Every structure is written in structure tokens, then in C-alpha cells.
Amino acid sequence: MERPLTVLRVSLHHPTLGPAAFANVPPQLQHDASPLLVGRGQDAHLQLQLPHLSRRHLSLEPYLEKGNAQLVFCLKALSRKGCVWVNGLMLRYLEQVPLRIINRVFFCGVQMLVHIEEGTSLEAFVCCFHLSPSPLIYRPEAEETDEWESIPQKHPPPGSEEQTPGHLAFLYSPSQTRDSPLQPSHEGGTEIQLQRESPNGALC
Q1: Can you supply a Gene Ontology BP term from the record (predicted)?
Q2: How is residue 203 annotated by DSSP?
């Protein structure tokens, strides 16, 4: 019997470029237990064509933690030029931080919400992607600090109040279907509709 995969539900938003920024993003991506690269290079597993994005900008890295029988994840910054904000913490080149169940990530104007649902497989995980027509993050560097005004802002971020639980409803939208991967949203954006079940039993 196959073991269920860990599922990363990844929501994406860009305030100015909109869905065009994510034209190459698949509805679902299954990956082995090696780092998943995000960038504009041909070797990136998740390719985004964005201004100022590095060929290898960041990676989602699964690993085994002592005393834990399931995969856990960290996010590592790989860009020498830009920085990545993760849950209010700024990462520079080769810095990394463990991910929580729900994580807010900001880079090159991209707002990314990563929700981790644990599985028992240690060999692979699956990412399910969704394009959000609404902002996901407000002032990303202020998520966990009151000193955001003193931090130099190379990329003027969009705002920073904590999202309410209602903003997470799109991760489990009942309107998601297998047959229509791309559909216009009611708010004027484009959503990638996620499949309900992967071949390995992961719900998406």
C-alpha cells in the first residue's frame, strides 16, 4: 500500500503582473525528497518569469528531523542580489528558516502562502498551486516584528495586517474541479483549479 504524500498547498499572488506572472505554473507538481528550486532558470522546477528574479531564487527543502517520522521543510534563499521574506524574517543568500504549518513568503513582488499538510511518505511530496486574485500578505517584514519601519525596504512591500481565517478559504474551495484547470474567478483574477486526488493518494 502506497503511503500518502505530504501536500504543500501553495497560493500565489502578484499585485501588478497578475496571472501573467504565473503562466508556467502547473496545477500540481510532484517532487522527490530533494530541494525544489524556484527561479527563472531552465533548471528551476517552478519557473517564474519575473523582473529581478534570479535563475535560482529560492528552494523548498524537505528533510528528516530527529524524532520525527515525517518530512519537514525549510526555505533557503539562493539569490545573491535579492532577499526573501519568510514569516516576517528576511533571508539573504544561503540563509534558511524552518517552515511552519502556514507560511507567508514574499520575493520579487510575489506573495506566496504555503500551507503544509503532513503525509507519511519520505520519498516524495506534492505541491498544489492556486492563483489568488486577492493579496495574501501585507507588509511581509512586519509579520513578527514591530520595528519594520527601521528596516530598509529595497522592494516596497504591499501592507502587513494579519490575515483572518476567512482569507484561507480559497485553499479548500468547493468549486475546484478536475476538468477545468483554468477558470476566471468571480473577482476578476484567474485561478488554477486543483485536482482533488493525486495518483499516490495525496488530496489536492
Answers
A1: positive regulation of canonical NF-kappaB signal transduction
A2: B
Kindly list the domain boundaries of the chain, sorted by start residue.
Answer: 6-145+152-192
User: Using an 8 Å Cβ cutoff, are 36 and 8 in contact?
Assistant: no
Among 155, 112, 134, 154, smallest CA distance to 9 is for: 112
- CATH 2.60.200.20 is the classification of domain 6-145+152-192: yes
Hey, which residues does 195 pair with through a beta bridge? none
What is this structure's pTM?
0.68
- Whether 28 and 128 have beta carbons less than 8 Å apart is answered as yes
CA dihedral 177, 178, 181, 187 (to 10 degrees): 0
59-88: string of b/e by CB count within 10 Å (b at 16+)? bbbbeeeeeeeebbbbbbbbbeebbbbbbb
pLDDT (tens place) for every residue of the chain, 204 residues total:
578 999 999 999 999 988 888 998 999 999 999 999 999 999 999 999 888 899 999 999 999 988 888 999 999 999 998 889 999 999 999 999 999 999 999 999 999 999 999 999 999 999 999 999 989 987 655 444 333 333 344 444 444 333 333 333 333 333 333 333 334 444 444 444 434 344 444 445
